[in-house]
Amino acid sequence: MAIDKAKVAVGFVASGVLLVFFGTLLTFVGPIIIDDQVVKNTVIDPQNQMSYTMWKDVPVPFFMSVYFFSVLNPKEVLLGEKPAVQQRGPFVYRKRIQKDNITFHANGTVSYREYRRYFFEPSMSAGNESEVVTIPNMLVLGAAVMMENLPFPVRLMISATFKTFKEGPFLTRTVGELMWGYDSGLVDFLNKYLPGMLPSTGKFGLFAEFNNSNTGLFTIHTGRDDIRKVHRVDSWNGLTKLSNWNTPQCNMINGTAGQMWPPFMTRETTLPFYSPDACRSLELVYQRDGEMKGIPLFRYVAPRTMFANGTDYAPNEGFCPCRQSGLLNVSSCRHNSPVFISHPHFFNADPVLLDFVHGLKPTEEEHGLFIDIHPLTGVPLNVSIRLQLNLYMKRVSAITETGKIAEVVMPMIWFEESGYIDGPILDTFHTNLVVLPAVMDYMQYGFIALGLATILIACLVHHKVKRSRSNVTLSSTGEDNRAVSDEERVKGAHDETKKYIKN
Questions:
Q1: What does each C-alpha distance from 138 to 87, 122, 178, 312 come to in angstroms?
Q2: What is the enclosing helix (H) or strand (E) of 461?
């Protein structure tokens, strides 16, 4: 039985059209399917096993690297000379984060407390916790600034108290003691007779109140009703706004809790988050595109306006009283102690701050903070938050421990909290969010290309069949014409012969 090539060509055309239609349909439906999966896996829901576990226990290893500014010339500083510091560290601690007391609410929010613990990592550190460093004594120099407006006799009594408990203007102690606390007769005295004056009731240390603690009661949106609100803070410790600052804008609690953000981000999207440690909301801005092991990302950094003073950036006026740009005065939420937060080595700050201290060399690579985030899901891939703790100190009359100290914002320590997704989590992330979408892209364009090729081949076959039939028809017509011509010639010759005979 002969194959009808024309019908085969028509069948191929139909198949090609279907392939092109299916491929084109996939270009529209594919992104919708991916977005739907992102939404389902971004909502905070215990039924989403992997994403919920990542949110609850944060399986990514986080580290806190601490650097001390050890004072090289404490005696000279008391005589009014410029401080000279030497950076010591890093002293690295593994940070374990776990959410507890998780309670889901009917209005699409969830409450929790996040607990944090720190464990020293000797193998990752430049020294051990028994290393000795010299830093300003916050109990003395900080208290002196706090008490400078009290009556002269009271200041004399304060100075006498410092001498009684042998508290000097500078501390030379081990890293472990400065981090997590040391025994102090003055601390015991203040906690007994002036309770609430110090941030902790036990030993006094720079991070004593952070270890084995929680960041407060967060209530955030689950994204169940609106995925654009997922992870956004609804309240903190029952508050929807703060009272530390001087304007409603500065007292706003904006953004997320600082671990994840809503999906479907663009380059115009910012990263707002509330930081209990900074006592305010912060906001990072887009800097550039990037890639981490094949996964696309957006890098977000701190704008220069983050710690700018009210003169250089009017919206920050509510965070004042201010000093130079690049310093955030957190005294209002740190028991009125003259403490300032900045970027390490006064990066992105007023250059004049560098003139008051020897030994600082700010660079963006080493001291700028950033978050690398996957824009489709809002999941951070690589995080490095770097901040510096500074003490404002000066000479205060009647408090002899301050000597002739020149007015200076003195860097004490800076720390980096960092973490990045790696291992099986990164592999799963890469498969679900890079490989599968890429396969879908290849499939949709493959279907379209195959369909167009099929249609083209079918058209060529159909054209060839049609041309072949046309040639056969022409050939048959030619044979018939030749047969008629021969008969006419024979008849003509016969007629001529008859005519000749008659004549």
A1: 19, 27, 11, 29
A2: helix 436-502
Averaged pLDDT, 46-64 = 84
What pLDDT is stored for residue 185 in this prediction? Answer: 87
Q: Fill in the amino acid letter for 405.
A: I
CA distances from 351 to 2, 363, 409 (A): 90, 13, 13
Digit-coded pLDDT (tens) for 368-385: 999 999 999 898 999 999
State both tokens at 236. Answer: 């903190």
Write out the two tokens for 433.
């969010």
Q: How confident is the model at residue 500 (pLDDT cuts 50, 70, 90)?
A: very low
Helix, strand, coil content of the chain in percent (nearest 5): 40, 25, 35
| pLDDT tens-digit map of 108-135 | 999 999 999 999 999 999 999 999 999 9
Alpha helices in 269-397 (DSSP H): 364-367
Beta bridge mates, 172: 134
User: How many DSSP H helices and E strands does the chain contain?
Assistant: 10, 15
Q: Mapping DSSP to helix (H, G, I), strand (E, B) and coil, where does residue 110 land?
A: strand
Candidates 324, 328, 288, 283; CA nearest to 302 is 283
Here the tokens at position 173 are 């102690």
Going by their DSSP bridges, the two strands 233-236 and 271-275 should be labelled as unpaired
Q: Note the Cα 166 to chain centre separation in Å.
A: 45
State the DSSP code for 356: G
CA distance 484 to 80: 129
Query: What contacts 440, CB < 8 A, 6 or more positions away?
Result: 26, 30, 33, 34
Note whether 412 and 391 are within 8 A (CB): yes
Per DSSP, helices labelled H in 58-151 are 74-78, 143-146
Contacts of 34 (CB under 8 A, 6+ apart): 376, 436, 437, 440
Alpha-carbon span 252 to 250, nearest angstrom:
6
Among 53-62, 155-164, 215-224, 334-343, whose mean pLDDT is lowest? 53-62
Question: What residues have CB less than 8 Å from 237, skipping those under 6 apart?
Answer: 216, 217
Instruction: Please state the pTM of the whole predicted model.
Output: 0.84
Cis ω before 122 (30° cut-off from 0)? no
Tokens 């509330």 locate to 274
Q: How far lies 107's CA from each of 43, 100, 103, 219, 246, in Å?
A: 14, 20, 12, 11, 31
In the beta sheet, which residues pair with residue 133?
Answer: 173
